[in-house]
Amino acid sequence: MLWIKALHIVFIASWFAGLFYLPRIFVNLAMEKEAMVTERLLLMARKLYRFMSILAVPALALGILLWVGYGIGRGPGNGWMHAKLAIVVLLIGYHHACGSILKKFEQNLNKRSHVWFRWFNEVPVILMLIAVILVVVKPF
User: Containing domain of residue 99, as a range?
Assistant: First the structure.
């Protein structure tokens, strides 16, 4: 089980690296006016989105294995797990929102400012903070 936990943490950290960095590319895309630079940023964003999508699969699968297979977070006194699962659902939604935003940039349909993307970039940081507190502290 410790190997599964370790791998789960590694894949979560790797997935979050993408969730943190892709919106930073969006900030630059929202400010950029030069076509060549925009194309380079779009290429980076596409590759990163594809890579972080691949990383999300084992992160989620290992988490499900720990929960269902090993019983972590199951039974009475584990309300923290329900809250953590809600955070996971929000993160999956955020991940898909990043894909939708990327498509808008590819189609030159983005209407949001770089300031909006700077705030959007803070969402996974807050969600990760809450998830870590839930897992470590287990407040309920």
Answer: 2-137
